[in-house]
């Protein structure tokens, strides 16, 4: 019996029709970053499908404010504030997934995004 390893974009939607997971797979392996939607409209962007790395980005729904740091299974352990400065480019010729390019925020620059004022998770 033979089988084919997926080489395509993968998208999983939650019960509300929102993006739960978006990734590019080449020969069954993650190629570029994986994006996972979060409650409230933000995204986790990670080089790991398990969302475990020292370089995972939590991207706020405003798509400008970000936290970059160490995550395990999608749980933030430590992070630094940043602002999206653009995109880090395509992950390769067979895939169009991009990673946000985040630069460090100036001291006190990112205290809360405009979205946070309406979000119960930001105190």
Structural features, described:
This protein has 123 residues and is mostly beta strands. The chain has no helices and nine strands. The protein has strands at 8-13, 19-26, 29-30, 34-37, 43-46, 53-59, 65-72, 75-92, 95-104. It has a six-stranded antiparallel beta sheet, with no helix packed on it. Strands 1-2-3 form a three-stranded antiparallel beta sheet, with no helix packed on it.
Largest sheet: 6 strands, antiparallel
User: What is the name of the CATH topology?
Assistant: Histone H3 K4-specific methyltransferase SET7/9 N-terminal domain
Number of strands: 9
Query: If you average the pLDDT, what whole number results?
Result: 75
Biggest sheet strand order reads 4-5-6-7-8-9
What does the radius of gyration come to? 15 Å
Shape: globular
Question: In terms of structural class, how would the helical and strand content be classed?
Answer: mainly beta
Number of domains: 1
Q: Spell out the CATH superfamily.
A: Histone H3 K4-specific methyltransferase SET7/9 N-terminal domain
Describe the protein's topology.
Elements: E1 8-13, E2 19-26, E3 29-30, E4 34-37, E5 43-46, E6 53-59, E7 65-72, E8 75-92, E9 95-104
